[in-house]
């Protein structure tokens, strides 16, 4: 249950089911109490730091008002900026307003030009917001950028879509929180697209609602446990053939670096032998990793090898022929970069992919995904979960939709969001390394789904390890990822055995 993610529609049903057995206002009071407790933690136990609470017109504002009353009772100087809106509030929110007014909570009508706050609480809008923030709400959120203290969002940062992680509206604005306490269940939008930038550090508070009220989740957060059963120590009595061959197909003129990076990713993730099959004449060997073998692609044998096809491949007729040959083979495939673009432009190639019985993993970034689905990258980013689901369904393959909170999907509709990684991965070549890692896991016998989960998690964890070591995120390079991925993979195996 800890890794379950629920849509707004599901959360409304959870709320209705819980209220069937609870007195009106119970969940709002519990939310206010939980948020107040978290606020005291963020204040470091100091009671002399004032707290500003922004309370909107709906139940999210009611949560903030309940929180203000609890903080005031605890001796905190709590001030509420209440924006009641035009429509009548719910009876629960009205009761919360009365409780806050009855105590020592202070109320103001506008944000002071200067204020020394220990904490600002965003209780403007929750999961019900469907329109971009406008007018006084937009101005208020924009003014928060000048505040130099922690910002705690209640449920979701105002202006962020809880389902998709997109800021609502083409020119939308949202609260950039340092912390979020989210109620009843976790939401996918807090973990992908803009979610990680705007939600900050996350805490889930279930408000006493037990598993009996929870439906099957819409998605899950990924974890090492999801692929741990595939991790195994290596026996002494093995040889390089025990761990599979990976062949990276790519390297058109001027793009030799991409397949080399993919090959290094495969080598460091444990492939027994690693090849680069070059479309155009290129380097004869990799001086950094001379273990990688280079061959011309036109007569390279695909049989018996896991293929990573697409890095630096280009869109030539020769590239198209090699892709068709790969799709018609029985080899496990990782389809990346230019190969995805070619499939998106060819209904025939897409049909060949969908009809395959051998494992296949697609690793698109949003623009490549857009070409596959015949839409724009902005449309992909507006609903990353649904886009990944559609790509998996059409291709009959596991899909890793790359980006902040990479979304991993399989054809039956199962969705996971990968939690690892950081901004250092936004650099040329990092996706090639991911494709190589995925190819190595396939070559070692991992099924496509686990290879997708494992490669995304290990790739992101490698970037996190580098940052922990002082490498990046600014200036991190793709060439630094393979060795870090190797360290992560060996640590996972060691921890499992331990």
In terms of topology, how is this protein built?
Blueprint: E1 4-5, H1 8-19, H2 26-42, E2 51-55, H3 59-73, E3 78-82, H4 91-102, E4 106-108, E5 119-123, H5 135-143, E6 151-154, E7 179-183, H6 195-199, E8 201-205, E9 219-221, E10 245-250, H7 257-268, E11 273-278, E12 293-296, E13 306-309, H8 317-328, E14 333-336, H9 338-344, H10 347-354, E15 360-363, H11 366-373, H12 377-382, H13 384-395, E16 398-401, E17 407-409, E18 415-417, H14 430-443, H15 448-468, H16 481-497
Parallel strand pairs: 2-3, 2-5, 3-4, 5-6, 6-7, 7-8, 9-18, 10-11, 10-13, 11-12, 13-14, 14-15, 15-16
Antiparallel strand pairs: 1-9, 16-17, 17-18
Helix pairs in contact: 2-3, 3-4, 7-14, 7-16, 9-11, 14-15, 15-16
Helix segment tally: 16
The coarse overall form would be elongated
Strand tally: 18
Q: Could you report the average pLDDT, rounded to the nearest whole number?
A: 96
Measured between the Cα atoms of the first and last residue, the distance is: 25 Å
> In CATH terms, what is the architecture of the largest domain?
3-Layer(aba) Sandwich
Look at the helices and sheets and give the structural class. alpha/beta
Quick overview:
The protein is α/β, with parallel strands linked by helices.
Task: Write structural notes for this entry.
There is one protein chain. By secondary structure, the chain is α/β, with parallel strands linked by helices. The protein folds into 2 domains: 4-220, Rossmann fold, CATH 3.40.50.10260; 224-497, UDP-N-acetylmuramoyl-L-alanine:D-glutamate ligase (3-Layer(aba) Sandwich), CATH 3.40.1190. The chain is 38% helix and 15% strand. It contains 16 helices and 18 strands. It has helices at 8-19, 26-42, 59-73, 91-102, 135-143, 195-199, 257-268, 317-328, 338-344, 347-354, 366-373, 377-382, 384-395, 430-443, 448-468, 481-497, and strands spanning 4-5, 51-55, 78-82, 106-108, 119-123, 151-154, 179-183, 201-205, 219-221, 245-250, 273-278, 293-296, 306-309, 333-336, 360-363, 398-401, 407-409, 415-417. The strands form 2 sheets. It has an 11-stranded mixed β-sheet with strand order 1-9-18-17-16-15-14-13-10-11-12, with helices on both faces. The protein has a 7-stranded parallel β-sheet with strand order 4-3-2-5-6-7-8, with helices on one face. A hairpin with a 5-residue loop joins strand 17 and strand 18 (415-417). The radius of gyration is 25 Å and the shape is elongated. The protein starts with a strand and ends with a helix. 54% of the residues are buried.
């Amino acid at each position: 249950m800890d890794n379950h993610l629920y849509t707004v529609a599901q959360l409304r049903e959870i709320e209705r089911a819980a209220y069937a057995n609870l007195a009106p206002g119970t969940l709002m009071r519990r939310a206010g109490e939980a948020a107040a407790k978290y606020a005291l933690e963020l204040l470091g136990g100091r009671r002399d730091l004032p707290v500003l609470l922004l309370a909107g017109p709906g139940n999210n504002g009611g949560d903030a008002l309940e929180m203000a009353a609890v903080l005031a009772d605890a001796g905190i100087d709590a001030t509420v900026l209440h924006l009641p809106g035009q429509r009548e509030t719910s009876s629960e929110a009205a009761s919360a307003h009365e409780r806050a007014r009855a105590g020592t909570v202070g109320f103001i009508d506008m944000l002071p030009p200067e204020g020394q706050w220990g904490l600002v609480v965003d209780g403007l809008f929750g999961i019900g917001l469907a329109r971009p923030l406008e007018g006084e709400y937009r101005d208020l959120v924009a003014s928060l950028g000048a505040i130099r203290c922690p910002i705690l969002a209640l449920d979701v940062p105002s202006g962020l879509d809880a389902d998709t992680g997109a800021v609502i509206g083409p020119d939308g604005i949202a609260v950039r929180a340092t912390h979020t306490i989210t109620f009843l269940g976790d939401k996918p939008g807090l973990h992908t697209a803009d979610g990680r930038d705007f939600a900050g550090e996350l805490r889930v508070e279930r408000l006493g609602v037990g598993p009996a009220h929870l439906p099957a989740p819409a998605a899950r957060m990924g974890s090492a446990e999801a692929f741990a059963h595939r991790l195994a120590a290596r026996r002494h009595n093995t040889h390089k053939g025990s761990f599979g061959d990976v062949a990276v197909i790519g390297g058109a003129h001027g793009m030799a670096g991409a397949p080399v990076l993919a090959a290094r990713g495969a080598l460091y993730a444990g492939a027994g032998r690693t090849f680069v099959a070059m479309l155009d004449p290129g380097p004869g060997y990799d001086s950094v990793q001379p273990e990688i073998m280079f061959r011309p692609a036109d007569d390279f044998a695909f049989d018996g090898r896991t293929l990573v096809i697409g890095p630096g491949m280009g869109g030539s007729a020769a590239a198209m022929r090699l892709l068709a040959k790969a799709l018609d083979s029985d080899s496990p495939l990782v389809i990346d970069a230019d190969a995805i673009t070619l499939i998106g432009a060819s209904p025939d190639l897409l049909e060949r992919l969908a009809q395959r019985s051998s494992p296949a993993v697609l690793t698109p970034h949003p623009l490549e995904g857009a070409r596959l689905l015949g839409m724009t990258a902005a449309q992909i980013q507006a609903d990353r979960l649904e886009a990944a689901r559609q790509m998996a369904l059409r291709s009959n393959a596991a899909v890793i939709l790359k980006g902040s909170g990479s979304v991993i999907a399989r054809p039956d509709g199962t969705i996971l969001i990968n939690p690892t990684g950081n901004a250092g991965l936004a650099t040329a070549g990092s996706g090639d390394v991911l494709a190589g890692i995925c190819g190595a896991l396939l070559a070692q016998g991992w099924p496509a789904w686990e290879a997708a989960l494992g490669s995304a998690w290990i790739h992101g964890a490698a970037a996190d390890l580098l940052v922990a070591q002082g490498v990046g995120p600014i200036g991190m390079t793709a060439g630094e990822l393979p060795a870090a991925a190797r360290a992560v993979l060996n640590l996972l195996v060691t921890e499992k055995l331990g």
